[in-house]
Amino acid sequence: MPSYTAPTRDMQFILHDVLNVSEQDTPGYSELDREFTSAVLEEAGKISSEVLSPLNPVGDSEGCVLENGVVRTPKGFKAAFDQVREGGWTALDLPEEYGGQNMPYVLGTAVGEMFSGANQAFTMYQGLTHGAASAILVHGSDQQKETYLPKMFSCEWTGTMNLTEPHCGTDLGLMRTKAEPQEDGSYLLTGQKIFISSGEHDMADNIVHLVLAKIPGGPDGIKGVSLFIVPKFIVKDDGSLGDRNGVTCGKIEEKMGIHGNSTCVMNYDGATGWLLGEEHKGMRAMFTMMNEARIGVGMQGLAQAEVAYQNALAYAKDRLQGRAVTGTENPNGPADPLIVHPDIRRSLMDQKSFIEGARAFMLWGAELIDRSHRGEDADAEGLISLMTPVIKGFLTDEGYDMTVLAQQVYGGHGYIEEWGMSQFTRDARIAMIYEGANGVQALDLVGRKLAQDSGKHVMAFFEMIKTFLKENEGDEALKKDFLDPLKAASKDLQASAMFFMQNGMKNPNAALAGSYDFMHLFGHVCLGLMWARMAKASHAALEAGTTDEAFYKTKLATGRFYMKRRLPATALHLARIESGAEPVMELDAEAF
Amino acid sequence: MPSYTAPTRDMQFILHDVLNVSEQDTPGYSELDREFTSAVLEEAGKISSEVLSPLNPVGDSEGCVLENGVVRTPKGFKAAFDQVREGGWTALDLPEEYGGQNMPYVLGTAVGEMFSGANQAFTMYQGLTHGAASAILVHGSDQQKETYLPKMFSCEWTGTMNLTEPHCGTDLGLMRTKAEPQEDGSYLLTGQKIFISSGEHDMADNIVHLVLAKIPGGPDGIKGVSLFIVPKFIVKDDGSLGDRNGVTCGKIEEKMGIHGNSTCVMNYDGATGWLLGEEHKGMRAMFTMMNEARIGVGMQGLAQAEVAYQNALAYAKDRLQGRAVTGTENPNGPADPLIVHPDIRRSLMDQKSFIEGARAFMLWGAELIDRSHRGEDADAEGLISLMTPVIKGFLTDEGYDMTVLAQQVYGGHGYIEEWGMSQFTRDARIAMIYEGANGVQALDLVGRKLAQDSGKHVMAFFEMIKTFLKENEGDEALKKDFLDPLKAASKDLQASAMFFMQNGMKNPNAALAGSYDFMHLFGHVCLGLMWARMAKASHAALEAGTTDEAFYKTKLATGRFYMKRRLPATALHLARIESGAEPVMELDAEAF
Lengths: 592, 592
Hints:
2 copies of one chain form a homodimer.
Chain A: H1 8-18, H2 34-62, E1 65-67, E2 70-72, H3 77-86, H4 105-118, H5 120-139, H6 142-153, E3 157-162, E4 178-181, E5 187-197, E6 206-214, E7 225-231, E8 233-235, E9 241-244, E10 247-252, E11 263-275, H7 282-318, H8 342-373, H9 378-409, H10 421-431, H11 438-449, H12 452-471, H13 476-504, H14 508-512, H15 515-543, H16 549-566, H17 569-578, H18 582-585
Parallel strand pairs in A: 3-6
Antiparallel strand pairs in A: 1-2, 4-5, 5-11, 6-7, 7-11, 8-9, 10-11
Helix pairs in contact in A: 1-2, 1-8, 2-4, 4-5, 4-7, 4-8, 5-6, 5-7, 7-8, 7-9, 7-10, 8-9, 8-15, 8-16, 9-10, 9-11, 9-12, 9-15, 11-15, 12-13, 13-15, 13-16, 13-17, 15-16, 15-17
């Protein structure tokens, strides 16, 4: 059975050696000293390894079962959910006012990676609730906040997001679900929503659905969409639960993975709902959830790559097969362990160098969110808004590829469900799709974010890299292995942006045909930057005479691998981008 | 439910416009005129679409069930197997002497792609039988051939390959299964084999297992391995079936995919077997099966990519979502079809340009096998031996990636089993693993095939490209779009081979650390060559005033896409290769 060990050492390195969180002036960051974050991460790691990880294969093989309108979650899920709830893990980074722990998002993100890595399907129940609660927190009335938030923060009640309908996913303007206004100010909702994660289950007393619907007579298309709170049980004035609302689970989907999470068809048959935020401004409110959710999904990509890598590594050290080409390394055994073989190393290093770079990228992104929300830093907000599709798209695509590499290390055993490696790839697959398929992320990046505020944020990104390179140009230890490759990669990114500017105005397809490559190019540059920053921090630690020399030397070697073997992908992406729209758009649809 | 349409038009193009099969002097090729191959392909296509394809999801959802030692295949499999048998499809390219149809392998390969694309799990029962029969044909005694081949050619009896044991896959020298010689010349086999595809089932009267085992007292390791014929039922002298042999299925594995094929643990408890070929020369005999099987597996990668693409394309034309950025294309509908969006195009073109290039590569490889076997052409044999790991490794890796792209076109529906796209990726995944995991293919390519016969075959490959470029250098229509990119890509391949030569002698790891990239680089150059040849053939057809202009123009546009957007990957692979052993091998195993 696969196992999960929380990467606390690496997280501490990023938080303290690279991001220097406790020295920053973002509100709440001064508390984040090494001892405090270590205590939180160790405790979260323990729950992840001991409680959530053993339930991961159980969730996969049992799945969720719908019987007489009730969804039964896999054996052990409810007890584990209670344990997570009792440990106070469900609202780590939410405000104290409604029962949260008010810790920075950066710490919540680190904990989130652990939970997701140990058990993605399970953690989604909590993750969706967090997203729904955040939307109510930002857009809800005081009464709505008082009614729902304390129970949602504690996950006594869970939450969902209801966007997709059978005929529309990305294009929500086609939506048909109706919300008819009632005299008491409530609405009656009618329609069908699909792909509703955690839509119905047996782990919470109530489920608070956030539902997009159209109020009849409103504007056409996406501008006529409003957001509603539709609880499974109506909440009475005294906060107790009243009548069962007219919302039911019609079906649980059979999926490729995340079987432990109930993906429901939800039927709204005159269900009572209350407007959240303003009429016809539903998309704005929904995006509060979506942006957070997108970053959380990027984290899932990284998290599945991490757990798959851990198990591939253990197998590579344990499984004896063949002899090292440079001479026997395990003379007392019948063969050498897999890890002696160069191609197994190549695979493990691809995984390791992605994961550690991605983790730094992820936590840097979370830090920007804290600077934006807690520190009200508009530049940070612009930058994270720009990078959100990159975090979502690049980390889930690459994260998935890494689970495939990890599975491959197991040879035939990787294909057998019993060994657990298949589950990691099957679970990781969804992250490329939900919360906006990765092609939509690329479109968001190139079609919207690049030009946002007159391109201010992407210019700031380039400026930041330039400044970093300039500040460190005298550092000979960094130059050849880290700064030069970063410079080359960021030149490729700039050339791509330039190509879009020069050609995209005349023909938008010239930019959009390269959008997917641009997202990946951008991702590589971000990881290159993170590796350069991590290398700098590692040199500093080694020069300061650290007692953990092995850790920092390994970090440097892993970074050099990334710069030499992964980062040169930027040139290929640039070549694809610069080939423009024609190769992509030339054929008529009928010619395919 | 997904569907399958046989790509007969494209196959005819490759066979006749590109390979000009009927004009070649390879024995049997003169019969392969357009009418004949069309008749065979149309008929095979019909069975694929109408019989095999509808059973594909059935096989996936039902799987195989072991009860009281008997394996039940999914509903409909047996009737379909009878139909395939009765149609004479099981020994298309095997000799007439034992009931085969004696058609060239190139035609068998085209038909094989159809069957595999329509239903991979089903087609494996027949494919394994073909491989086992081929090994008996080459290495068996006259009596063995007479006993087994007629029934195996007709698939009344099926065959298996038994290599892997729980503790050894790639490293077969560690094998423990024993074969004790008996006085009557037979052997008693004892041991356990795992991952035995089609190991036990209810579709044939007998199952002929080919089993690798060690005769006690023989040489250690791989040099002491012999190959045995172990039938499920002992065949009596009159050809009728006698006693049940001591071989049983202990378990069916739960796998990620190919559920319709029974992957068995086979227990040999003093089972009677007969030596096939010479004592201790089992690997040589097994490789007869393995090489054929490896090419067949490469074909599976292509076949799954094709069927996944067909369904993605249909969805992209049908699903209405969003509007084209350059202006509405479907004004009477609520939205435009997905195919208007550049990033959907990018994905479809990636798939289409890979598939068509891969099909040409595959059929060219099959033609080389015919030249080698039927024409006794040693150069062709050397070339296909060199390219076998490329066909297996590159086509299955890329084929898998294409199924992932196709699944992505479906958005959320791609993740729901009901739509069938998940099955294509789950089924395609095994092809990267079995018959030698792709890392082992890369090792075979760089560690063995490159230097084979003093590097003669790789030199011949480079020479062939040089000749092609020279022969066509005056062709302005080809030059910029096809010849120049092919030249650049083949330079990258030559530079890689040069790097290995210069560095691999001193340090074998310097070559092996780049082996995987070399396999992919090689694959891209092969597809680049095929696209150049296809472009040449298309220009010729257009100049000759073809009535099917649209087909050839589409072919050229698809080829240009490959050259512009896919082939530049060679530079990235070269960069990775030239970074050498150090980034890959630097860390101690403990440092991971």
